[in-house]
Amino acid sequence: MTPARQTRAQRLAMPLARHVVRDLAAEHGACIRPVQLRRTDLDTGQVEQVLVPCGHTLATVCPACTDRAKTLRAAQCREGWHLEAEPVITPDDPDDEQQMWVERRAQAQQDRDHAAAAEHDTGELDELSGELDEQITRSGLRGKVLPAGPARRHRSSRRRQDTPDLPRRPVSARTIGKTCAAPDGTIYRPSMFLTLTCDSYGPVHSDGTPADPGTYDYQRAARDALHFAALFDRFIQNLRRFLGYDVQYFATIEPQRRLAPHVHIAIRGTVSRTELRQVLAATYHQVWRPPADLVQFADGELPVWHEASGRYLNPATGEFLPTWDDALDAFGPDAQPLHVARFGSTFDAQGVLAGSKDSARCIGYLTKYLTKHIGACHQAATDAEHAHAERMADALRYEPCSPACANWLRFGIQPKNPRADLRPGQCKGKAHRREYLGYAGRRVLVSRKWSGKTLADHRADRKAWLLRTLGISEADPSRYIWQAVTPGDPDHMPPAQRLLHVLADRQKWHAALAEARARASGQDNGVSLSATGRAA
Ligand SMILES: [Zn+2]
Ligand SMILES: [Zn+2]
Hints:
- The chain is of the alpha+beta class.
- It is built from 13 helices and 14 strands.
- The strands form 5 sheets. It has a 5-stranded antiparallel β-sheet with strand order 12-5-7-6-13, sandwiched between helices.
- It binds zinc ion (ZN) (2 copies).
- One zinc ion is lined by residues 31, 33, 53-54, 56, 62, 64-65.
- Residues 401-402, 405, 407, 427, 429, 432 line the site of one zinc ion (ZN).
């Protein structure tokens, strides 16, 4: 049939071929932003292109990878929660892929430092380093290639007088909770599900909007969100000292409707409500930073950069602004912290038994929102909700997010590591961005001895299961050299081409898996493949 002549509108109404490929790939559970690697077989000399999933954790970026990440997190949470034996932790040797990422990271660092020395913009290279750091973590290495900057001055050791003392016990190496025996002899190993919230900033309606926006304490809400991760750390330290063992946790940070963060925590072992109340009352985090309440330089009369000295000066007087270190040195014996973060006194705690319906429900809670940005979990629908989100964003806009934040200029202090182009209100720090609601830290916080496995180990478990199911034996990893393929390389595949390969691979893979399942159901009725039969 010869197609009739089409109008422009008719052509526009036709689906774009490329989008169909992408949507089909996503529908088949494939990554839509695959990373291309070149694999050389040292035995045969054969070179192959391998497409590995991007591993993104936001549903808006890559639904399939996000879905897999969430499933993995649930598996990690489940495995550690009711562990019966102490996890054994011995580091493995790094594999070739891990070494390759570290080598690329080294190159990126050198390029970045050269650019910095030549006073070129390092933004893109910093971003590249950040992405490589994520790949390094994803490949199963622990920690970072660079330490997190020089040690900070410690001013937090001063104890607050308005806080009760907590009995402190030496922390033993034990990580497993106690068991209890029922009259019939059954041994139970109870664990806990705990939710901690921020304090009240003023009464709110059921939709989370303030009853009186004029008196709602947005500044305190902003500061609590900025320092939420540090407060959580304090809580865990206190809990360990109070209980006297190395308490393990799997925690996720989520927003409440009032747009304040709260944390769901799966804890191995149990604590009574009375004990929790005691620990919470004694837990606080003091932020020892210069005062940031009085605006000294509003927009329009900002401090100016003095190129020759690399410092900022007051445009009216020509004097240098105090540096970050000057400002810290100025703390006298009566100085007050900029902020004291505490949890609210209301909390939710329940005991959970391994494998129970409760346990599954709680794991659902723990992973529910992980596929979204913290600011996208509750979409504002009404005018009041929009206005509340707007006021929260305003409060976060000028609140200093870190010692290097441009906002310090507004309060008459030169930020740490100053540069020429700093403008208050335009700091690029994640915490200021709407989608983060002031909390720029990690969404999932897992203690080191939770399941005794890294996320990469859990991923490897799934892969091994898949290979077994398909009856494929894994080749010796030392047979291969892995290299990242970059856009300048002759064998580089553009994204559209990669997607076609991914889609084709997926179809073959689905067929192979279906066949393996059919085989298994014929031969082995004991194995339920459908429950776990997803991509490794
Ligand atoms: Zn992906
Ligand atoms: Zn900032």
